[in-house]
Design a protein that fits this description.
The complex is a heterodimer of chains A (115) and B (111). With 115 residues, chain A is mainly beta. Chain A is 0% helix and 49% strand. Chain A has strands at residues 5-7, 10-13, 19-24, 31-37, 44-50, 53-57, 65-68, 75-79, 88-95, 105-106, 110-114. In chain A, the strands form 2 sheets. In chain A, strands 2, 4, 5, 6, 9, 10 and 11 form a 7-stranded mixed β-sheet that branches. Chain A has a 4-stranded antiparallel β-sheet with strand order 1-3-8-7, with no helix packed on it. In chain A, strand 7 and strand 8 (75-79) form a beta hairpin. Chain B is built from no helices and 11 strands. The chains are: A mainly beta (115), B mainly beta (111).
Chain lengths: 115, 111
Amino acid sequence: DTGVSQDPRHKITKRGQNVTFRCDPISEHNRLYWYRQTLGQGPEFLTYFQNEAQLEKSRLLSDRFSAERPKGSFSTLEIQRTEQGDSAMYLCASSFGNSGANVLTFGAGSRLTVL
Amino acid sequence: QQPVQSPQAVILREGEDAVINCSSSKALYSVHWYRQKHGEAPVFLMILLKGGEQKGHEKISASFNEKKQQSSLYLTASQLSYSGTYFCGTESEGSNYKLTFGKGTLLTVNP
């Protein structure tokens, strides 16, 4: 078990460019979450998948954000036409879905800086 | 809605105790507690389920008042390694496994 892996760990981009982050969850986990965290704040929910189905997407999420989880394995989060306000840490987490405890395991995150 | 945590920050000396509180305006199914050290990912500490089931660490305990939709995390005989930001995450009734986090409580343990 190698944990949740995220790539890249750091990304610096210019405003208006597109960026894509990848998350590889723990292999037996069927749920995958994306969160955004800014300095001094808690993780803010963006979206989550159960297997390959995207079950919920935050209403606060702009149409510039899209996420996929083909075949229910890894996931990608793409941000189009980045803005300075998109600068944040993007956290991926996964969990094994059964009744009862839904414990999330987080990856180390992908830090985005938009210049 | 985002759960509310208090206090926002607390400073302790090694060996002292601390309590961190988390409250929600929604009926909760579960409360999760995570600790995040600077520059690292949040790490799971404790989960409390409606109905009283509890899973977590040895030296950290928590309570869940289902009627008041409140949870408290108890850190006893604090160690330097307890320093970090503590987040509560809540699953509301019908939230379909979506976890919403509070803003966090910064805990600093000094020698």
